[in-house]
Amino acid sequence: MNTNMPEENTIEVATDQVRALRTAGPGSLLVWHEPTDRVLLTEPGTIPDENMMIIAGHSLRDLTEAMPHGDVERAIHLNGLARVWRVEWPTIKLMTPTMVPIRRALAARGIYVDNAPAVRYSKLLRRRWLTDEYAPNEFPRVTVRVMITHDHEELARACPNDALADIQILVGKQLMERFAIEVDTLGPDVAAEVMAVATQTVLKHMASA
Hints:
The protein is globular. Helices cover 34% and strands 29% of the residues. By secondary structure, the protein is of the alpha+beta class.
């Protein structure tokens, strides 16, 4: 008799889903949908909220050049990553509502979240950081990185009052521009619009330079 308990929180990415993601177009994502406990391929431009744990974006940027290029190998690799992110999901889920207006405002300008968020902690500073990476549709070599900072004690709130957004624009690995916006001063929706307009302006300036 098999006495092994079934593995909890197992997320399975199928090879066909990886193949579908590659062909779905910019703005598509593979996500784990928590309410249904299923891995789903989103429509291009879908805004992932606190019910969707991002596994991979259309560019599959978490798969380095050293990785095998077959979809079977990609699926295996993403399964491993997803299980790691699932452990961090409760924290990411609590911090996600502050990111949603930013994701929406950037997506409206063709700048799509394209990677699983990264979360960092500092017990000394009593801070947590959540980082999104975005792929501008018109600028394939550019990455827009948005980092939101929260106090530890504020995580129980949907939109912490102390949130600060740090925006970095990179070409390859080279930092080209960086600026910050205080979300608490402007409010989440206004701050997201200001951030999106500023990001779009920088990208247009870079393109014309």
